Amino acid sequence: xxxxxxxxxxIAAYKVASLLRLFTEAGHNVTVIPTxxxxxxxxxxxxxxxxxxxxxxxxxDDVHQVNHVRLGHEADLVVIAxxxxxxxxxxxxxxxxxxxxNTLLMARGPVLFAPAMHTEMWQHAATRANVEMLRTRGAAVxxxxxxxxxGADSGPGRLPEPQVIFDAAMALVQGQTDYQLPLAGRTVTIxxxxxxxxxxxxxxxxxxxxxxxxxxxxxxxxNAGATVRLLAAHMxxxxxxxxxxxxxxxxxxxxxxxxxxxxxxxxxxxxAAVADFRPAEVSDTKIKKRDDSADPVITLVRNPDxxxxxxxLRNSALPNAAGPAGDHQLIVGFxxxxxxxxxxxxxxxxxxxQRKGCDLLVVNHVGSDKVFGQDTNSVVILARSGSEPQExxxxxxxxxxxxxxxxxxxxxxxxxxx
Length: 418
Description:
single chain; alpha/beta; Rossmann fold; 2 domains; eight-stranded mixed sheet; five-stranded parallel sheet; 13 helices; 32% helix; elongated
């Protein structure tokens, strides 16, 4: 397939190199047309090296080939990334001041814009009108992702990840003209890592969770267009860029953060490994080991069932039971299970799903060498609706993508509770 890849003059241009690589590795012939301003971020040598084709942004180069006409006519697909506010305005008003805008006017195949700009620019009435105009004329304009922008600010306006743009481009070529980021405009709260319950200032009760799966979920949700809030317990991996992080340590702290976050969340994913018990008493000083004293006895008390509380909080708003986006708030639980003589993993998981009342339950079969701390995972997704269990396996990134895809499907197909 012959693709024209137009590169706008924004700092996100550096990400487009990865998008170009996805196109070329898939076997497509890509001609890159950068705007003059964009070459101040990424030079033409980079585009030529990665595409294997000559690169120009002037209508006066190779005049004998009439490139300002030929490139648009021959293209099976035109992708603009980053589509800056300036480029969107020029495209909407039919300007033709350089090779890229000329090519857009000549294009007869599908055209995809992947916007990137600061939030205020994206939300400005002029930009919104330009986007609507382009969509009315048949172009596909993705919603930008939400997250950290150039400075310290965050919000909608971040360039969607290269894989997301690639998937949207392939869907567009296949006739899916309404393709959009599945979680665009949604707020997703995800808990990750393992809680720690202190015994004294030095010791704690903990678990083996590394936080890898929760972080992978946060990245997948961010890439799907969501505003992501990560309730981060102890983790062995760094938090991802472009998400809001709320640090927690204990189950009680996680409970407080989760209940507060529920107020504006469309989706809540409780993937953290939460301690079922905590010490009834916490010593203010380190518990000493002395030869002349008896072994300490530690009394444990139950921690609250945060997932069940979130479901009850959601259901208490019935008949509306709605998130801020105006439809069903989706709650997803995780179950780390082992089988025993009384039942297998799925039997215990099905019983837990009924007790908790969440919409989806992601089930892990855990063990000393499974799931915790590993880079791969294998899960079964159970639905309270009774639909067939869904299996997902692979890297934790791949499993996260499958879970987020299922959540997107549920949000678009599940009606609010009556």
